[in-house]
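dude i think i finally got it to work??
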Amino acid sequence: MSSRLSDYDYPLPRELIASRPLPQRDDSRMMVLHRETQTIEHRQFRDLKSFLTPDDLLVLNDTRVLPARKFSDDRAIEFLFLEKLGPARWRCLVKPGRKMRGGTVKEIDGVTARVEEIAADGARIIALDSDIDVYAGGSMPLPPYIRRLSDAEDETRYQTVFAQKPGAVAAPTAGLHFTLEMLREIPHTFVTLDVGPGTFRPVLTNNIGEHRMHAEQFAISKEAAETIDKARRVIAVGTTTVRVLESAKRRDGKLVSQNGSTDIFIYPPFDFQVTEALLTNFHLPRSTLLMLASAFAGREFVFRAYAEAIRQRYRFYSYGDCMLIL
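look at this
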């Protein structure tokens, strides 16, 4: 076990960061980690079903990514609309921040936007002259390591095929590999966690235990709770799904239908109560997502797998390949 931030770092060649999706969603490679034997297999994502039994249950996050990125009319400022605080009042991330100090005014779709306040985390509280649909004409909020603007392809590919409930500003990327045809063949259910910008927030403390996560909203339906409780083995698709499952309240030992928020931070050591296997993408160095994967599979095993992935030229991050941890 390690609580030092530096123990979750690794060098990654820039060319291994996937900036575009593969032609087909299920074209991706899948590294399989067997925790019991500490062995690694190299497979294709299409092979996922061969690792499952009829009694297994996939749990996926059905949040839908909002087209929350917009530019000022002069194209000088990029806005990422995070949360509506009231009529014509929003919490936003802006770039470049140095140009958006308190009181600064910009036009968005012909409407005046003024910086009312700068929050402690650097977000701007923006007051609009009139209440507008900020998502109309907006674009997909690709992660900052994809160094390009989103385009028409991202409208569909930076969205899971099962996305239903609008609310996220980042995709639950482990779900991007699935096709509807594949899901029809595998028992599954859905939970919801509205992925916020905290998924990209860096850990700044040398002792990772001092890091604090941003709270995110989640929901588990009655049907999903009952289905999860009956499953022989619960396979979480993505770290966001893990955070829902491990945050969920139980009554008499059973998962209950609920709506809530979670700021759970999962890092080694952690006692997983629901998650028994995990499908996840490859994550950024020093990220909370990498720490979660390390808590589930063991830091040494995960880092051995990452070194192997780099040697084998796997594709990393949101549009990259995936890892199945059994």
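The mean pLDDT is 95.
im so relieved honestly
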